[in-house]
Amino acid sequence: MPATPLAVSIPTALGEMPGRQWLPAAGRGPGIVLFQEIFGISPYVERRAAELAAAGYVVLAPELYWRQGISGIANGPDMLGEGLAALQQLDWDAAVRDGLAAHAWLRSRPEVTDTTGYVGFCFGGGLAFAVAAQADPKPDALVSYYGSALPNLLDLAPQVPMPSLHHFGDEDAYIDRETVERIRSAVAGPDVEFYTYPGADHAFDNADFVTYHPEASTIAWGLTLKFLATHLPT
């Protein structure tokens, strides 16, 4: 498994956005833009990116807090407070444009084969959905883990026609079950997979956070890899 990502620079209208790229052992493969959670490019995000690269994907994680001078937020007792503070300073529209720039950059890379997809966690799960709505061409697949912004983005669902996979915990403290069902109804389609996990809270996939749920995380990650293998075959 690749241990060290490559530092890359992604051109945007307002400057060069830093990012990190992981390459699969073969050196080439389908591309995945990985959209961070509120903690930036954290050790957890790096681990997931490396695991996707090990599965055969070229992975790009743009540093979406770059305008604030933040890369990742260290694990610690106040990581939630620091993450929320960073998110409050974020310009959402600028972040969507940054996501589009990251997609365009990744598609242009010679190591990326024909298809690209998005994987996003928490804040990044909603942002990936918003970017997919505006992308041209569209990504070939989307995976969203408990997208925190999704309840306010459902009017974009008709613009997100690609195969998608959504994960939510049944005990999510930020997105109640009624809202989850509203999301399920809005995004429903023949190529949409939607799973909920008993006993799991928000951020259940992050092993560095207090709400980590090992069973839900393991099942959801297995389903993610299976979904990606179907729609972004390596």
From TrEMBL:
Pfam families linked to this entry: DLH
Q: Which UniProt keywords apply?
A: Hydrolase
Name under which the protein is recorded: Dienelactone hydrolase family protein
SUPFAM superfamilies reported in the protein's UniProt record: alpha/beta-Hydrolases (SSF53474)
**InterPro entries reported for this sequence:** AB_hydrolase_fold, Dienelactn_hydro, Dienelactone_hydrolase-like
Coiled-coil segments: none
Keyword Hydrolase listed: yes
Taxonomic path: Bacteria, Bacillati, Actinomycetota, Actinomycetes, Micrococcales
Dienelactone hydrolase domain sequence ranges: 23-231
Report the GO molecular function annotations: hydrolase activity
